[in-house]
Amino acid sequence: MFILNINSSPRKNGNSVILSRKLCNAARNNGHTVKTVNLYDMTIKGCIACESCTQRKVEYCIHEDDLTKISPDIINADVLVFSTPIYMGHMNGLLKVFLDRWYTFAEEDFSIRHVMGKKFITITTSGAPAEQFAEVTTYFKKWFGEFFKLEYIDSIIAGELTEQGEAENRPELLAQAEKIGASL
Question: Taking a C-beta distance cutoff of 8 angstroms, is the pair 61, 106 a contact?
Fold first, then answer.
């Protein structure tokens, strides 16, 4: 199984990165192949709604940037892991730009190509209590699950992480991440 781990944290040892790493290490221990992409190391332009992708003028997107380069990995992945810190009550901006570019996987009639049927996991972290931003996971379930027709596996909603790297000291979160990764 090929797992594509998509980290949107600007921090290399941020809490969402720690949890996704733990999850992916457990999956690797089960013999799965894992590739991690850090969106903050990439150049990703915003969608300009040109509709070149839905009109099949290009295969993925008219922008020739790093998202276009990893589109084959998205298409070849069996499982996608999306991890994000919560900024101002929602996913961070770079993950939103990334999600906007998924327009390339929709046809003009909004049927879905390439990604339908893949599985997905979400990881959200914040300094706020988890219940204050749990609706972000609901948002992911709606767009990735209902709209893009991916199959939801599980989520980690981790709150009250006020310091960078604090997830390392939360055994319940590490165990949850490991359990999800081991179940793949």
Answer: no
